Amino acid sequence: MARRLRLGMVGGGIGGFFGAAHRIAARIDDRFELVAAALSSSPERAKESAAQVNIASYRSYVDFEEMAQQEAARSDGIEAVGIVLPNHLHYSAARAFVEAGIHVMCEKPLATSLADAEALATLVAKQSVVFAVAYTNAGFAMVREARRLVKAGAIGKVRVVQVEFPQEWLASDVESTGNKQATWRTDPLRSGRAGSLGDIGTHAFHLAEYVSGQHVESVAAQLSTFVNGRRVDDDVQMLLQFEDGAKGMLWASQVAIGHSNGLALRVYGDEGSLSWSVVEPNLLKLARPGEVRIIERGSASTATPVRLPPGHPEGFLEALAQLYADFADAISAYKKGTPQSASFLPGIADGVRGMRFIEAALKSTAANASMQKLD
Amino acid sequence: MARRLRLGMVGGGIGGFFGAAHRIAARIDDRFELVAAALSSSPERAKESAAQVNIASYRSYVDFEEMAQQEAARSDGIEAVGIVLPNHLHYSAARAFVEAGIHVMCEKPLATSLADAEALATLVAKQSVVFAVAYTNAGFAMVREARRLVKAGAIGKVRVVQVEFPQEWLASDVESTGNKQATWRTDPLRSGRAGSLGDIGTHAFHLAEYVSGQHVESVAAQLSTFVNGRRVDDDVQMLLQFEDGAKGMLWASQVAIGHSNGLALRVYGDEGSLSWSVVEPNLLKLARPGEVRIIERGSASTATPVRLPPGHPEGFLEALAQLYADFADAISAYKKGTPQSASFLPGIADGVRGMRFIEAALKSTAANASMQKLD
Amino acid sequence: MARRLRLGMVGGGIGGFFGAAHRIAARIDDRFELVAAALSSSPERAKESAAQVNIASYRSYVDFEEMAQQEAARSDGIEAVGIVLPNHLHYSAARAFVEAGIHVMCEKPLATSLADAEALATLVAKQSVVFAVAYTNAGFAMVREARRLVKAGAIGKVRVVQVEFPQEWLASDVESTGNKQATWRTDPLRSGRAGSLGDIGTHAFHLAEYVSGQHVESVAAQLSTFVNGRRVDDDVQMLLQFEDGAKGMLWASQVAIGHSNGLALRVYGDEGSLSWSVVEPNLLKLARPGEVRIIERGSASTATPVRLPPGHPEGFLEALAQLYADFADAISAYKKGTPQSASFLPGIADGVRGMRFIEAALKSTAANASMQKLD
Amino acid sequence: MARRLRLGMVGGGIGGFFGAAHRIAARIDDRFELVAAALSSSPERAKESAAQVNIASYRSYVDFEEMAQQEAARSDGIEAVGIVLPNHLHYSAARAFVEAGIHVMCEKPLATSLADAEALATLVAKQSVVFAVAYTNAGFAMVREARRLVKAGAIGKVRVVQVEFPQEWLASDVESTGNKQATWRTDPLRSGRAGSLGDIGTHAFHLAEYVSGQHVESVAAQLSTFVNGRRVDDDVQMLLQFEDGAKGMLWASQVAIGHSNGLALRVYGDEGSLSWSVVEPNLLKLARPGEVRIIERGSASTATPVRLPPGHPEGFLEALAQLYADFADAISAYKKGTPQSASFLPGIADGVRGMRFIEAALKSTAANASMQKLD
Question: Which residue among C289, C290, C301 places its CB closest to the CB of A291?
């Protein structure tokens, strides 16, 4: 194994869950070394957080613009950066690092407007850096196995796609009780106009396209805000029409009591179906008429590489680690001048599609759930 | 226990599945005695079928009109009749018996048009007979327990209703291969304009309203026909808007490989949720934030009467038997001059609503899935 | 279909669960007509119960000996009888009817001693009546499918058999609180020396042999009484050695909180395994190395006849009904002089094996769980 | 966070699964830095493996004795070591590092004889190093939550313990086909006299004691070798008697087709029960009479710390990482002169009990499954 890539991190100071998850994930396959960070916009907290994660104080920044410039100027500067900020800062942070020629792993959504997302895509193309979007579910081995099976024709021509992402944590007005995660995620200024639509709806949308290999063409959406006083949607229900004739439904909810995090996908073709859920992420159900087979991660019939043999469950951190491993591979390929094409790693184009999806859903819900094209 | 009620049966000759199910179900709680029938429109088959089920040959009919008249004229004539015919005959058969003053248990859908259904409702009101519709799922103990719990406020105010009814048996063109059930169910002349919409979509719709206690106000529907050459829809996807602000989704499909008969309902309120599926009909999941409880039919916390103690599973026949027991109770109450009001037994009004639902869905799908009111 | 057989019932008066279950089950497939009974040893209660189930008062008996004699003497006397009494009365009741030449469906266990069971078997052979034992689980379609698959070699040579039957209802001292079922089942005078061993251990034992096709040769048992003051065992744990080299474990418990009635069987061969539980009685899991398949009752790959198509669940009553249907078939065959041999219906030999099992388990537990042969 | 502890690794060269798992796990919580290793006894392979994991070539050893001595002599020598060797080498490797005053995380079983295990325990006590045993399942958050709940009285007094660990990977003679894992694990010279008993039976045994808080006093065991020509047991069935009167059963099998790695534990008390399985490691079932509750890792009712919020599954690597985090804590406490007592970390005493368990089981099976004390 070659030397580790030098990694920076933006956002994710002490107490944040996703920042810690990214740091662990980047370590799991030992392809990165965390050497610089802007962990908080509060100087105090940035410093303390940096010390906690063993980053030298002179490489702990408060401002990501400054970090991008200074690191780009160092001979031992970071080669890649993970961006784990509130949604409204994704765009400017990503922009700063891309402009500095640094490869980026960015949390979704890419931006708070489609225009920004497209501008970023143009910049990425021009700068020719590797740009990955942290659609973590794309890192689960059995999600990839499902994608591989669909592509290999295991279920025939896709007809119906059912995806749902129910959560319960915003079922009451927790943003008024000091829950930090809830506060920024329900604040349109920091989260964007889309609430659960952007936060988890985009995950559901990406998973549906990623596995089914189908592109959504139009959506009819009814967005609801069930909690009084909430400023963004907390429940999203949609009909989907795909380019090649498949039809689908998408439900994302943050008021669905009974589900901590119930992402689930089912894809039905004319010869079979596939079913996966993050609740049992190491399993995949493959049905043919009259028969349902349970396939386990790592078992003989599977073709997707795994770290652990079947029965030794992998989880969320390993999924995110997989994206970091792919990211490292893509950077290596880039350095060798052989950039990858048909990769499993979600990239800038997926991020832009996520924004188109949000725009179309908002437009549809404003027009009494009428069908709207993604464009 | 009083004497058994004299029951007739229309439809359901040898080899039919639902006819046999009705006969068994009517026997289970021993409230009916089958004494007359028109089991087939073929004289040969009617006769043979009647002999098989121990019906005297002189009370085996070929024509249901004749049966209604002759039985009404006998002093020992049938008091009630079960109608298990192809959809397009429900209306005229029901009409014949209602006009003869005979109580009716009718398979759904009531009719093939809303106008017919409403005419029938008017007639039932005039004749003042007991009219039950065989929405069998309403007979499962845990469906009733769910309905009871919602009404008792166990999940608070209803916000979201998710219902689905996936089946796989029409995933390919089986109607061309001689499957009798498939042949009439995909024939618009015998099944009505609605395919899976009428066949199973109405079950899903009824269950959603029955348990949630909410009335659907509008629907946005995309109906598909995935199998080439099929003349009716085989997949139905809908957004639902309820009168009191709840939102929902409904999926009914007969091309969903992997599901033999996967009816499932979830109702989410502001304090909890309930989840039930015919796949595990003896269980109910009741969630509160951070906790999911599994409740078993017959266990201490339940208040719905059962035949068997917990752990001794009841199934489809017991559910249908429950409707027949309710039907017998309703007839008894009618005879005593104390007709029931807030019963658990689906009646003519439910049947009419099912027709409104079909009409609205057809209208919506013809208008690119735009929202349509049920009226 | 020919005329119904005339059936009598002994035991199972008002309020009893198993008596009602037998009556419904005998009705389901319409092969029997209940015409006489001794439903209670209390004249008052016998009379009232008989009226409730539409038995003529002159054919309602208080004493089963008298019933056997009088019915045998009538030209329209019962041809068969169901015995649903407390355990200590099974032997004498069965004896009375067998001596009168009446076919018997008897609840298990056959007797309270092996000697009685063997005497009964001798009598049955001499009288040459049909004698069935109500091992109800043997009536579930997927139990039969499992048995068929094992016999057909689907899992290869059987190596390991794991069976368990956990219940929770005796986890505390309910027999002191007036629970009638608990009172007689924990009374050695009415239930026999074996508590949960006889009540549910025998069901587990029968199921294990019935499906695996293997005969238990020896057992090592530790019986416990966890509830203070209880006079019989309430938890049974055993190692099993089978004649052909398979090994197994059996657990039956009535203090296993969390299980209402968790009977479950797994059979492992050198090529695959089968797994079934009464908790999901319509499913069977068939595993081969690296792959688990879920098979549904009635689906294309199955060969066991069913009443309802897949997805329409059958339950406990249908299982018991299956035994009554088999019983009717056996009686018909007997009448035609062509008695059946390799039937699916549990018979007197199964009942005797159950008693041998009890004896060996009691002997083993008295000798510090040492291995004891069944003989 | 303080600086990372310097860690060495013995065993686990290229291609080995458990070595890689230990290295990742030690990295996850960032408490260790891998700086030295003896990854293989083949000089070539050791060198190549060391390079792959970024260990300087001059700190890559071939012999663990030499490694222990040289590292102990360096001022920057390792403070702790992970031992991931075939079973027969655990004892001598552990001995070498303990003698050198280096803290040890050792794979189970501790040794191939009870005498060796006890000698090691004596040495550990004398040297006063931290000694941890990699009973990985003890690192799962919900296993710890279960242990905590039992201790807190959530299920009352423990009555019955049911543990099983079925695997399928040795169902046929794979050791003859070149499977390296199978070859050493079925070789008595490298694995010890116990096959599946030592390999997975000890895991089941540890889990049962760890969660229930009960100590096994006696066992009755039947060990089988189902695969022809195999030199060790491949199936283990046992009755357990606990010191305080609880009774239990243990099944460990490597011929159980249908299970990749089905470790499952159930503990029944007089007030409730707990159920956990590695198949769904993020869930725990807590039953009280008439009610089963599903508790999720990280949800409000739990008190065990977690890395990720509920619904973001943790897996095997996180469980092992937890043991490494505990190990780091224990070393820190040791350095501060405040060694921990009632820790969640399995230690040398657990390792010794595992050996007593093996000895008693072998003795019992040699005496026709008679009860044998653990001593």
Answer: C301
Radius of gyration of chain D (CA): 20
Dist CA C184 CA C193 (whole Å): 12
Torsion of CA B299, B305, B311, B317, to 10 degrees: -150
* pLDDT tens profile C95-122: 999 999 999 999 999 998 999 999 999 9
Q: Give per-residue pLDDT as tens, A141-171.
A: 999 999 999 999 999 999 999 999 999 999 9
Q: What is the per-residue pLDDT across B6-15, written as a single tens digit (0 to 9) for each?
A: 999 999 888 7
Say which DSSP state A59 is in: G
Within a 10 A sphere around the Cβ of B178, how many other Cβ atoms? 8
User: CA B310 → CA B215, B287, C304, distances in Å?
Assistant: 32, 20, 26
Q: Give the other-Cβ count within 10 Å of D28's Cβ.
A: 22
pLDDT above 90: percentage of residues in chain C: 86
Place of tokens 């139009």: A218
Residues of A in contact with D3 (CB under 8 A): 54
User: Could you report the predicted ipTM of this complex, rounded to two decimals?
Assistant: 0.95
> A239 has which bridge partners?
A220, A249
Q: A-chain residues within 8 Å CB-CB of D21? A: 307-308, 312
Helices then strands, counting H and E runs in chain C, come out as 12, 14
CB pairs < 8 Å spanning B and C: 117
Cβ distance of A301 and C291 shorter than 8 Å = yes
Least confident of B208-217, C331-340, D124-133, D334-343: D334-343
Q: Phi then psi for D180, rounded to 5 degrees? A: -60, -45
Partners of B37 in the beta sheet? B9, B60
Nearest residue in chain A measured CA to CA from D262: A311
Instruction: Give the CATH H-level superfamily of domain C141-307+353-373.
Output: Dihydrodipicolinate Reductase; domain 2 (3.30.360.10)
Report chain C residues whose CB lies below 8 A from the CB of D235. Answer: 159-160, 247
Question: What is the third-level CATH fold of C5-129?
Answer: Rossmann fold (3.40.50)
pLDDT of residue A146: 98
Residue of A nearest to B364 (CA): A370
- Answer whether B300 sits within 8 Å of D294, measured CB to CB: no
The DSSP secondary structure of C58-98, one letter per residue, reads GGB-S-HHHHHHHHHHSTT--SEEEE---GGGHHHHHHHHH
Inspect the interface and report whether the beta carbons of C54 and B281 lie closer than 8 Å: no
Please name the amino acid found at residue A31. Answer: R
Q: B140-308+353-373 domain in CATH 3.30.360.10?
A: yes
- Please give the biggest Cα pair distance in chain C: 64
C294 touches chain B (CB under 8 A): no
Contacts of A119 (CB under 8 A, 6+ apart): none
Q: Is D303 on the interface with B (CB under 8 A)?
A: no
For range A218-240, the mean pLDDT: 97
Q: Which residues of C touch A302 (CB under 8 A)?
A: none
| Mean per-residue pLDDT, D300-309 | 89
- Minimum distance, in Å, between the CA of residue A289 and any CA atom of chain C: 9
Provide the edge-to-edge strand list for the sheet that holds C5-10: C32-38, C5-10, C80-83, C103-106, C131-133
| B289 to D300: CB separation less than 8 angstroms, yes or no | yes
Per-domain boundaries in chain B:
5-129, 140-308+353-373
More confident residue, D40 or D15: D40
Q: What is the pLDDT of residues B344-356, one digit of tens each?
A: 999 999 999 999 9
In CATH terms, is domain A140-306+353-373 a member of 2.40.30.20?
A: no
What span, in angstroms and rounded, lies between the C-alpha atoms of B151 and B160?
15
Q: CA torsion, points D316, D320, D323, D325, in degrees to nearest 10?
A: -100
Q: Which chains touch C (3 or more CB pairs under 8 A)?
A: A, B, D
